[in-house]
Amino acid sequence: MEFLKRLDELANREHSYIVKSEETTSEKYGYYPLERPINVYIEYGFIPLDKPPGPTSHEVVAWIKKMFNIEKAGHGGTLEPQTT
User: Fold this and answer.
1) Does the residue 4 lie in any domain?
2) H or E stretch including 2?
3) Are 37 and 31 in contact (CB under 8 A)?
């Protein structure tokens, strides 16, 4: 329930919820989303990116690797330089 309240707060919205039961999750199986360390997002996550016109997809990947100081990165599809 706390997670939903925090999402509402971040979205600047207010909802009411009916909770039938609260369940707990063992922290040995991962992180609560709002408590997940940034390095875990970088290691296992992805970046949804609206590529601007001009650079190629490969150039954008090279920038991301440099910005986050990571060795491995890729993209889900090749876009021509003029394509966004």
Assistant:
1) no
2) helix 2-10
3) yes
Residue whose token pair is 């039961």: 21
2: in domain: no
Number of domains in the chain: 1
Neighbours of 8 (CB within 10 A): 14
- Predicted confidence (pLDDT) per residue in 1-21, tens digit: 677 788 788 888 888 888 788
Residue 55 forms part of a structural domain:
yes
pLDDT tens digits, residue range 22-72? 777 777 888 877 788 888 877 787 778 888 888 888 888 899 899 988 888
Residue 15 CB partners (closer than 8 Å, separation 6+): 4, 8
With tokens 């001009």, the residue in question is: 54
Does residue 83 form part of some domain? Answer: yes
